[in-house]
Design goal:
Blueprint (H helix, E strand, L loop, with lengths): L1 E3 L18 H5 L8 E5 L1 H14 L2 H6 L3 H8 L3 H10 L4 E9 L3 E4 L5 E16 L2 E21 L5 E10 L5 E4 L5 H45 L3 E3 L2 E13 L2 E11 L5 E5 L16 E6 H11 L4 E5 H4 L1 H14 L1 H6 L5 E6 L4 E5 L2 E13 L9 E16 L2 E19 L10 H20 L3 E2 L1 H5 L5 E5 L3 E6 L3
Antiparallel strand pairs: 1-7, 2-11, 2-13, 3-5, 4-5, 5-6, 6-7, 6-8, 9-10, 10-11, 11-12, 13-22, 14-15, 15-17, 16-17, 17-18, 18-19, 19-20, 21-22
């Protein structure tokens, strides 16, 4: 069982259809939406459980099935004499080859439970003193179990695998090769004894292996959600809160927090009254849906408020000339005071905010800009408050989620302080936008260049990530091959 604590989401691809309504209302009957959700489709569950069955050597378990003992136990009373009469003609009986075919994961009728089917294909052989040839039997049987969410005494929720047994109507045993009449008759008798014995063996021998494999799968899911996401010196960490099953999808509901380099929690994301729409998994094996405030906090951790000072005439002489011309329109005296060591100071005051409209993303920033006549001046000519927006371009590189800012615009400019008299700051809009594009954007893009690692992509067996945007979240999925 996977024990979980009490609980206290465009560019490419564009093929998603989004479910409407509150996440919690659809999944867990609550009115709040979590910071993040990892949604696993049936293909991922099949792949993970198949690998875990291999890790637990399920094939070896099948090859060691005690067929003779089971035949004796399943036949009693009147049939015991029949068993003895048959067994005296058998030297040994065992599984000679076994394979697990492709698992199937299907929703149950209520849409809140999953059925897992494990089809088995085996060949058993027995030897008899009657002939030197090994008589081979082809055995087909299927194990099944239910995956559901269970609430414990302290309201702890967990994913549980239960009711493991053989699937009714999925048992078939036949003679692999026709032999003599005598051997065919003996094989038929062995088959009649194996028909009631094999399902019992599946339940007693294989079901514990399936359960152990499932528990390991749960442990792996818990571990992969706990891998910190590096954000320069900070980290974004997810906490496994509770599971939910919706038709054929398992949703892992996650909490989130920002942690600094010393391990101190600097921001804890609580459930929100805002809706969180989840993508359908018809076209992708899994999705990691992060609420917009979590994404904003991650970007803010990469771009904390900072102050930039630029000797404009040395770094951007043409821009410095244009700035002087623009200031000359306001005050010729001030323009003449601009020396070769003139300084432009840019201060980002608040964290960037991600804005999404019809799949297109922008980042809004509040910026303060000051112009000093020389590097020795203590007071600036003026101080401007700028409400700026940039195009936010998300893209991926392997399992890295990348972000780049393009085309900054100065949407509103406010004159906060002026030593050269009052003036309309819109007169400086073009040159201010040019300075921000030449100084601020390259600096911010340099800090974003390291990207954000989404290790869940590789941990779930995929090489590269893709992404999409909704109005309330960013969705990470595996890239299509």
């Amino acid at each position: 069982m996977c024990h979980l604590p009490t609980p206290k989401k465009m560019a490419s691809p564009r093929t998603f259809t989004f479910l409407c309504g509150l996440l919690a209302a659809n999944l867990v009957g609550a009115t709040l939406s979590p910071p993040a959700v990892l949604s696993l489709g049936p293909e991922v569950i099949k792949q993970m459980l198949t690998q875990k069955l291999k890790d637990h050597d399920a094939i070896n378990t099948l090859q060691q099935l005690p067929l003779l003992s089971a035949m004796k136990e399943s036949a009693g009373g009147v049939f015991s004499r029949l068993v003895k009469s048959i067994l005296k003609h058998i030297i040994w009986l065992k599984v000679t080859s076994a394979s697990i075919l492709q698992l199937q994961v299907q929703p149950r009728d209520d849409g809140r439970e999953l059925m897992i089917y494990v089809p088995l294909d085996m060949v058993a052989g027995f030897n008899t003193p009657l002939v030197k040839t090994i008589v081979e039997l082809h055995m087909e049987v299927e194990a099944q179990a239910i995956i559901h969410v269970e609430t414990g005494e302290r309201d702890n929720t967990r994913l549980v695998l239960s009711d493991c047994s053989n699937t009714r109507g999925r048992l078939r045993i036949s003679l692999l090769h026709k032999l003599s009449f005598l051997l065919n008759s003996l094989a038929d008798k062995v088959i009649r004894l194996l028909v009631p014995a094999l399902p019992k063996l599946v339940k007693s021998e294989l079901c514990p292996v399936i359960k152990a494999a499932f528990e390991d799968m749960c442990a792996d899911l818990l571990n992969l959600t706990k891998v910190p996401v590096s954000l320069n010196s900070d980290h974004l960490e997810f906490d496994f809160m509770s599971p939910a099953i919706d038709h054929d999808v398992v949703h892992l509901i996650l909490g989130a927090k920002l942690v600094d380099s010393e391990g101190k929690v600097t921001k804890l994301f609580n459930d929100s009254v805002d809706s969180l729409n989840l993508p359908s998994l018809h076209y992708t094996p899994f999705s990691l849906t992060m609420r917009k405030d979590v994404v904003n906090a991650a970007v803010a951790a990469l771009l904390p408020p900072e102050e930039l000072m630029v000797l404009l005439d040395y770094v951007l002489p043409e821009t410095a000339r244009r700035l002087k011309s623009s200031i000359k329109v306001i005050s010729e005296k001030a323009a003449n005071q601009l020396g070769p060591t003139q300084i432009v100071k840019i201060l980002t005051q608040e964290n960037p905010e991600l804005l999404v409209d019809q799949g297109n993303a922008k980042v809004a920033q509040l910026i303060m800009l000051e112009v000093f006549a020389t590097n020795e001046a203590y007071r600036p000519f003026f101080t401007l408050g700028i409400e700026a927006t940039s195009e936010a371009q998300f893209y991926t590189r392997g399992d890295l989620l990348m972000l780049n800012f393009n085309k900054i615009s100065s949407d509103r400019i406010h004159l906060m302080n002026s030593a050269i008299g009052l003036f309309n700051p819109e007169l400086l809009k073009d040159i201010i936008t040019k300075i921000l594009a030449s100084v601020l954007l390259p600096n911010e893009n340099g800090k974003l260049r390291s990207g954000i690692s989404v290790s869940m992509v590789n941990a779930l067996g995929f090489e590269a990530a893709s992404w999409s945007l909704t109005e309330d979240a960013l969705v990470v999925t595996p890239a299509s091959s």
